[in-house]
Design a protein that fits this description.
About 5% of the residues have low confidence. This protein has a single domain, classed as Rossmann fold. The protein is of the alpha/beta class and about 150 residues long. The two termini are about 30 Å apart. It contains five helices and five strands, in the order βαβααβαβαβ. α4 runs parallel beside α5. Helix content is about 45%, strand content about 20%.
Length: about 150
């Protein structure tokens, strides 16, 4: 039986990930959605650095960049195993939310998929990360936040 697309009108999905457990779940949801809707998936990561840090510790920044690229390569391979067309994007900078929003606009993404920080106690369970909050309030398209 063929799956029906749960959301109509999608052609590009951008999933933002930092390689953590909470964003890995978002990645799997995005792959499933892209497969169901037969749409293109873009997986991006932002290596958080500033100019000062990059100048003082370039080898640490390079390691973080390499780690992000390895994770994105694995994400792309996972998507392609599910017959989902996928591209990867890495940015370096201080404001991940800005890069996510700008990339979504550039790609004309219909939806951004991202995770939220999983908290375990009390009211913290209800909170989402500051990057997710900024994307939710400034993105031009739909944003799907996947809980842990």
């Amino acid at each position: 039986m063929e799956k029906a697309c749960p959301i109509t009108g999608l052609s590009n999905i951008l999933v933002a990930t930092d390689g953590s457990d909470y964003s890995e779940k978002a990645l799997h949801e995005a792959i499933n959605l892209a497969k169901s809707c037969n749409v293109r998936l873009h997986v991006m990561s932002v290596v958080e650095v500033n100019e000062e840090y990059e100048a003082l510790a370039p080898q640490i920044v390079e390691k973080a960049d390499e780690k992000a690229r390895l994770f994105l390569d694995a994400a792309k391979a996972c998507a392609e195993r599910e017959n989902v067309t996928c591209s990867t994007i890495v940015h370096r900078g201080e404001d991940p939310a800005r890069f996510i929003i700008e990339e979504a606009e550039k790609l004309k993404a219909d939806m951004i998929v991202m995770g939220r920080h999983g908290r375990k106690k009390g009211l913290r369970k209800l909170l989402i990360g500051s990057v997710t909050t900024k994307v939710l309030t400034h993105a031009h398209c739909k944003v799907l936040v996947v809980p842990v």
